[in-house]
Design a protein that fits this description.
- This protein is α/β, with parallel strands linked by helices.
- It is built from 13 helices and 22 strands.
- The chain folds into 4 domains: about 120 residues, NAD(P)-binding Rossmann-like Domain (Rossmann fold); about 90 residues, Alpha-Beta Plaits (2-Layer Sandwich), CATH 3.30.70; about 120 residues, Rossmann fold; about 90 residues, Alpha-Beta Plaits.
- Strand 7 and strand 8 form a beta hairpin.
- Helix 1 packs across helix 13, helix 6 packs across helix 8 and helix 6 crosses helix 13.
């Protein structure tokens, strides 16, 4: 697809990286020559220096032939205007990044009136994923498929976990219908088979229906009750959205923020949330506000280094579920080896939403991907396929399917039934099938099969 991205900041460059990697023809526009130079040195894409809101620059980028234009500048209003002009100029689809809480309630109206295909709010999307994990604290990350009927939950194995040392073929002893579909061990990622043996420190991704996931975690002695007391360190947009969602869920939420004006705004907007004006790095203040008794602590300031240090401290003084917000990908390798709980990258979450939308656009041109999530950074992904008529995988027992290495069938949704498949089960026309893979760019369910020679 031909895709134009306006805005070469952190978000725009991440969109460009993910979409170009997926094989799309990407052009990026920005006023700043230095930002563009850095992007074209790392990515094989076109770059145009100029104001991407103007029709002249959009035409230079080929907006009339564009399948999609994404506006990802730092200003909501500029993004909306950019998309309006692009739509009038001939772009088939438009996506705008809209971040302000002031627009959240009106976003459907704005989207309809401006003809937007999609709006992306990275902070809201990140807060929603955080809230999902806080409702199931044993998971580091949760992705949902088939309308929420199937989940992939990531869980880190502690040294005293009953899963340590067992082979996956022995999971049946826990009497829960789950499937371990991926294992991260250090920098390696495995799509395991039954003989794979788990070890302390492994990060396992589990496919299950929600009730089976809860049963499995209870049987391995992991907490399954949602958190009730939450402390948020930092009062930015993510803190606002997360506090609102968890307060609605019935949790007791406390925000600590250093900027007095921000505190006033939060207190007015969130009457059911306690807002404290203070420094979240002040150990005495944290103790006075009860950090030791918290069920969860989320570090959400604008400084990655500060978030990491506060998460490490919270983990030392409490048994809380820890959530850490990271903005820069340069910290990714470091954070992997630190005990900072569930780590969330807002721009990666937004980029996944864009990639999912682009995959959905491709459905009309032959792809049958319904949903897509990166479950292990860019090393593994889970895709939901709709089985089309004439698929080469239909009607063949899974044990007889000649699939490519790095492929695992995670679940099958057939009518009202969702199940973890076994070797004798078959895939049938009309099914929704979740596939976990380390292979890139699967566009069709038949792509899981070994290629004919």
């Amino acid at each position: 697809m031909r895709i134009i991205i306006v805005g070469d900041g952190k978000m725009g460059s991440t969109f460009a990286q993910r979409l170009s990697k997926a094989g799309h023809d990407v052009t990026i526009i920005d006023k700043r020559a230095t930002a563009l130079q850095h992007t074209i040195e790392s990515l094989d894409i076109m770059a145009i220096e100029g104001n991407g809101t103007t029709l002249e620059i959009q035409r230079e980028a080929g907006v009339e032939q564009a399948d999609l234009l994404i506006a990802a500048t730092n200003t909501d209003e500029q993004n909306l205007l950019t998309c309006l002009i692009a739509k009038r100029a001939g772009a088939k689809h438009t996506i705008a990044r809209v971040r302000s809480p002031e627009y959240v309630k009106e976003i459907s109206l704005i989207q309809e009136d401006l003809g937007l295909s999609l709006t992306i709010n990275p902070e809201l999307a990140c807060a929603t994923e955080m809230a999902r994990v806080l409702r199931f604290p044993s998971a580091v990350k949760i992705d949902t498929f088939t309308g929420g009927r199937v989940e992939i939950l990531k869980h880190c194995l502690s040294p005293n976990s009953p899963l340590v040392g067992i082979r996956l073929s022995e999971l049946s002893r826990f009497k829960a219908s789950v499937l371990i579909c991926a294992v991260e061990r250090g920098k390696e990622v495995f799509i395991p088979n039954g003989s794979f043996q788990l070890a302390a420190g492994d990060r396992i991704s589990i496919v299950a229906q929600p009730r089976d996931a809860s049963l499995f975690f209870r049987r391995i002695g992991a907490p399954t009750s949602p958190v009730r007391q939450i402390m948020l360190l930092g009062g930015g947009r993510i803190a606002y959205y997360l506090a609102a969602q968890m307060a609605d869920f019935g949790a007791d939420v406390k925000i600590i923020e250093q900027d007095y004006a921000v505190c006033r705004n939060l207190a007015e907007a969130l009457p059911n949330v306690t807002v404290i004006h203070g420094d979240g790095t002040d150990h005495l203040l944290l103790s006075q506000e009860g950090i030791e008794e918290m069920d969860a602590v989320a570090t959400l300031t604008g400084l990655d280094e500060q978030n990491i240090l506060m998460s490490l401290y919270a983990g030392q003084v409490s048994k809380a579920k820890i959530i850490t917000k990271i903005t820069r990908d340069s910290f990714e390798d470091i954070v992997e080896n630190m005990d900072v709980g569930s780590v969330f990258y807002p721009r990666y979450i937004a980029a996944e939403a864009v990639v999912r939308y682009v995959r959905a656009m491709a459905n009309s041109t032959g792809s049958n991907v319904e949903t897509l999530y990166s479950i292990v950074g860019d090393k593994a992904e889970a895709l939901e396929f709709r089985v089309s008529q004439g698929s080469r995988v239909s009607g063949i027992p899974l044990q007889d399917l000649r699939t490519r290495p790095g492929i695992l069938i995670g679940s099958i949704h057939r009518g009202a039934r969702v199940f973890i498949p076994r070797g004798q089960d078959t895939i049938e026309e009309g099914d929704s099938v979740v596939v976990v893979t380390t292979l890139p760019n699967l566009n069709d369910l038949d792509d899981i099969l070994e290629r004919r020679r």
